[in-house]
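Dear H.,

Thanks for agreeing to be a second pair of eyes. The structure we're designing against is below in token form, covering all 324 positions.
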């Protein structure tokens, strides 16, 4: 029997992303602007013009060698300040080398132009070689997402190890972890991506991770406390399905019906998201002891399920058998 409340594979992690993050055809999720690179560089430093002078146009003082006086000292102070604020723990370099030695292999025919141009722009804060490696790992993660989620996660982790301060990379890792059933890791990565980029992000996936961790109350809370004003209709549907599933987890079947009614299921709707919503609503009616009402909804789900992903026809037969 199909579970309409399982991981929302076909909408939430797919519907909003288009092809960003290398998920073209492999189906990713929504993302917001990265905010993960140049805008943070130089924060807190004195404002200077391109020549090293100050904002008033005064030329920098130079020593006898023609270089700006104090340049080396400033560079040294900057390095010391970075070390003070962001000290590397003991063994960090060795861990990074080990991680790169154990990265999954990359085929030689990957074209990084398959990534969305916005994602490629996000990666420009990295060195050229590193950006290319990150892009290739992201593409491989997206390509393997459905067929080999564990290997897809290894590629996503490799991209994160190389570019952990870029939001779309963390989001890609979160999506891969979600598909591999690593709920805790997925939730952590998606939270990190949201802190970097803002916006509601993959809220339905995050709520489903809470369910996977055995915390349905948290899933319901996410659906109640998030600002969904910027979320599209497909994401609203997926979130409603997840929250309804959390209600079922708690034995609150009538409340699950109400959760789904909030996104207005209709017997005239069309499309994959509508098919999932219609099926979930029919299932909720059955669990709420309203099987007679469910039949029409299962039939509509069967009629609009063009991809054949749902077992609505079987559910109709089961309803008929239960009435005999």
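And this is the sequence the design step returned. I haven't edited it by hand at all.
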């Amino acid at each position: 029997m199909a579970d309409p409340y399982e991981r929302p594979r076909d909408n939430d992690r797919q519907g909003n992303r288009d092809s960003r993050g290398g998920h073209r055809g492999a189906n990713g999720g929504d993302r917001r602007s990265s905010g993960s690179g140049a805008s943070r560089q130089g924060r807190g430093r004195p404002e200077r013009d391109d020549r090293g002078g100050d904002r008033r146009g005064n030329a920098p003082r130079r020593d006898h060698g023609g270089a700006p006086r104090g340049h080396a000292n400033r560079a040294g102070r900057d390095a010391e300040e970075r070390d003070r604020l962001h000290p590397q723990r003991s063994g960090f370099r060795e861990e990074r080398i080990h991680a790169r030695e154990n990265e999954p292999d990359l085929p030689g025919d990957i074209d990084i132009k398959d990534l969305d141009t916005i994602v490629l722009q996000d990666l420009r804060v990295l060195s050229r070689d590193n950006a290319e490696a990150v892009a290739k790992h992201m593409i491989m993660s997206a390509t393997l997402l459905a067929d080999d989620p564990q290997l897809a996660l290894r590629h996503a982790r490799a991209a994160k190890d190389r570019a952990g301060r870029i939001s779309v990379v963390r989001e890609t890792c979160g999506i891969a972890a979600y598909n591999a059933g690593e709920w805790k890791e997925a939730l952590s990565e998606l939270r990190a991506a949201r802190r970097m980029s803002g916006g509601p992000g993959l809220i339905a996936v995050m709520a489903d991770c809470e369910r996977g961790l055995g915390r349905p109350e948290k899933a319901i809370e996410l659906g109640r406390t998030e600002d969904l004003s910027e979320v599209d209709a497909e994401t609203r549907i997926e979130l409603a399905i997840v929250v309804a599933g959390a209600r079922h987890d708690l034995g609150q079947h009538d409340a699950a019906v109400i959760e789904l009614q909030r996104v207005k299921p209709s017997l005239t709707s069309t499309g994959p998201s509508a098919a999932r919503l219609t099926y979930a609503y029919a299932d909720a009616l059955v669990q709420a002891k309203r099987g007679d009402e469910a039949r029409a909804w299962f039939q509509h789900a069967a009629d609009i399920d063009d991809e054949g992903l749902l077992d609505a026809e079987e559910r109709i037969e089961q309803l008929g058998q239960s009435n005999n």
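Two observations from my side: The chain has 14 helices and no strands. The radius of gyration is 25 Å.

Warmly,
E.
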